[in-house]
Amino acid sequence: MAHAKPRMTVIDTDPGIDDAIGILLALASPEFNIVGITTVAGNIGIETTTRNACRLLAFAGREDIPVFQGAAAPLDRAGPEPLGLHGEDGIGAVALPDPMRPHETQHAVEWLASFLLDQPAGSVDMLALGPLTNLARLVLEKPEAARRIGRIVAMGGAIHEHGNVGPRSEFNLWADPEAAAVILGSGVPLVLVPLDVTRRVRATRELASRLLNSGQPKAQMVAHLVQAYFTSPTAQDSRPLHDPCVMLFALSPELFQCEDLELSVSVARDEKAGELAIMAEGKILVRVAMRVDAQAVLELLTRQLTAPWEGYSGRG
Ligand code: BDR
Ligand code: CA
Fold first, then answer.
1. Which atom of ligand 1 lies nearest, measured to the CA of 164?
2. Domains annotated on the chain, with CATH
3. pTM (2 decimals)?
4. 25, 64, 147, 176: least CB-packed within 10 angstroms?
């Protein structure tokens, strides 16, 4: 993808430590033309996820990118309690500047609809890092706009892996399974990046040191975010980089092995919510990233983040 024209890309996100790393990786990658960030409640409430998106852009000197606040709650159930893993501010108390540019007043779903209708069909991709509420609302409320999405690459689900919320359910699909069902049935081209892949791509203290020593501000900020994972007394030796895998897939799909599956998602009101079932192989084509060359994608992440950051004019 290195020489291709940058793809118009929207990041739909609930930052979130790993979301923040994914956003910084995207901002460090000239392969993406980030035209907007839309926020959703998930890891923490909507006001905080939106503010975190604005703070990340302020840090990166990219407040030219507009942020649109989206859904405060799932389609048809109560939202999750904040996840302690990401700290009280959602990003592990890592120091980021206050934003100069507030988020836009237009709702994320309204903006997505008008933006997609203004662009050539198929020219805008969505990188989805949180519960799929905004995108499902787009499909339900503005189907003619949703049909113009190039593709959605979404972090979510568990195929053969155990879950991280219920026995077989992953957080993003569990948090809003009705939204996931809408997206799976929408016909919008979809690549799912489940725990089967994201658990293989792990941040370590060594990765944090390497990024810190690079001297590149964006890499150093990612190092601080990774280090935030390791501050708890129960910290393990490594942590999965769930959301950055979406960016890594979009950058270098050849480093992943995919299967085309027909999937259904449970909308049960118990711990089964968000569980995926394989209905058929090679049929409704959700392309699912099932395996990854973990070492190669970690090298890619390091390379993207440590390349000289020509656009950098950020604060703090
Ligand atoms: C997903 O859940 C969130 O906590 C992370 O940000 C990621 O999007 C992993 O299950
Ligand atoms: Ca997320």
1. 10
2. 7-306 (3.90.245.10)
3. 0.95
4. 64
